[in-house]
Amino acid sequence: xxYRLATSNDYEDILKLxxxxxxxxxxFVKFEDLQDIKEEIPSYLPHLDVLIWYIDxxxxxxxxxxxxxxxxxxLDPDEIxxxxxxxxxxxxxxxxxxxxxDVNKDNxxxxxxxxxxxxxxxxxxxxxxxxxxxxILHLKLKEKNASESESSLRKxx
Length: 157
Description:
The chain has 157 residues and is of the alpha+beta class. The protein is built from 5 helices and 7 strands. The chain has helices at residues 11-25, 31-44, 84-96, 108-116, 144-156, and strands at 2-5, 49-55, 58-66, 69-75, 100-104, 119-125, 136-141. It has a 7-stranded mixed sheet, with helices on both faces. Strand 2 (49-55) and strand 3 (58-66) form a beta hairpin. Helix 1 packs antiparallel against helix 2.
């Protein structure tokens, strides 16, 4: 799997991929809210490190990072379930030091994905960042060394 930094020339394709992915995975969000969010996204993209993930000529998805926080990870729904999300997330954690992510509480598939990959819920908001009625879970990557140290301390207590 390869990646490249997105440019403003990619924004239209990114938005199309976002829309395709969200319509396939976010059935809990009202259509009107999705349209509003779609209009907001282009204003965020220039402020984020957006990576496009691909194999040969096939775009798998895109991600965006800001200060070690995974702001977005969206895959083409035709490519979900093939292990690409895991490959991308591992690369983001290892190479880009991603340590946190927010996820819609009602997005069971995404929630399971991040929990399976070592994230833990640290807090929750009842609304999204724009005040919409979609609870958000704030997740942080569980520190293996810290948890191993705690476990070791308990054994020796």
